[in-house]
Specification:
heterodimer; A: about 120 residues; alpha/beta; 5-stranded mixed sheet; globular; B: about 150 residues; alpha+beta; about 30% helix
Chain lengths: ~120, ~150
């Protein structure tokens, strides 16, 4: 019943973008963490996680994102988040993800903030 | 889905397989019920997430991973609130419920998972986690018809 994610890698200037299509659940672990590892092997700068605004993130997906944030912290990478609905913005605040990544309204806004001063 | 008509309230009952992914079916039914019952959009989203999390917990713990088991959600509208109850065949929650810490999880001092009950408690106005019934266990969640100022 659970469908695999597609994670697309791209770059916006000096910022790498991981676009996560579909729902984010425990079943997303391999797709998301493998994509991040692949991207990190050639990009050491800041990242944007771009979510599907119609997607759903459950507690299992939050655990996957925490693993990614832990790796990013070890790699000293700054993470921005875009594409969240108002509800999942609230959820990310509740959990505390916003202590380790900043939510932006658009990718352009995220790139401007993540590359400011560089 | 089954609808039981009562004299004062209408109860909707949804039974799903105890298999990951089907919690979305119960969650969508719950959101639809909340919308029809007049809850505002943000509360509809709250019930969608909370029911999905309660069903996922029921599948993992209440059903012990047995995919032949079933999880049932009942939805009632009462006094302007929606009451969602998630039923499984388990024995309820016996271990102390610790408040998860994202700082400790990021540091690797706690497993990254463990957010389901935290979300349920944060999204519902009232939660009864350990309502025992003859055939198992039920989590009962109340969602009031009002704008919440903070989670």
């Amino acid at each position: 019943m659970q469908h695999p994610n597609e994670v697309r890698l791209s770059e916006l200037g000096a910022v790498a973008v991981l676009e996560i299509l579909g729902d984010v659940t425990a079943a997303s672990e391999n797709a998301i963490l493998n994509a991040y590892s692949e991207a990190t092997s050639r990009h050491t700068g800041p990242f944007i996680l771009r979510f599907d605004s119609n997607g759903y993130v459950n507690s299992g997906g939050i655990a996957v994102l925490i693993q990614l944030l832990a790796q990013a912290r070890r790699n000293r990478q700054t993470i921005g988040i875009t594409g969240l609905s108002d509800h999942f913005r609230k959820i990310f605040h509740m959990v505390g993800i916003t202590k380790f990544a900043t939510i932006y309204g658009t990718s352009e806004e995220a790139v401007a903030a993540l590359t400011a001063g560089t | 889905m089954r609808v039981r008509m009562g004299t004062e309230q209408t109860i909707v009952e949804v039974t799903i397989p105890s298999q990951p992914g089907y919690e979305r079916v119960a969650a969508e039914c719950s959101a639809s019920f909340a919308g029809v019952s007049g809850l505002p959009a943000d509360r509809v989203e709250d019930i969608r997430t909370a029911v999905a999390e309660a069903c996922a917990n029921a599948m993992e713990y209440g059903s012990g991973g047995c995919q032949d088991a079933r999880v049932t959600v009942t939805l009632e509208s009462s006094d302007g609130a929606v009451v969602a109850s998630v039923w499984d065949a388990g024995t309820g929650i016996r271990e102390p419920l610790l408040h998860p810490s994202i700082e400790r999880k990021i540091q690797g001092l706690e497993p990254p998972k463990g957010w389901g009950l935290f979300l349920i408690r944060g999204l519902a106005d009232e939660v009864d986690l350990n309502a025992a019934v003859a055939s198992g266990h039920v989590i009962k969640m109340v969602f009031k018809n009002r704008e919440r100022t903070s989670p």
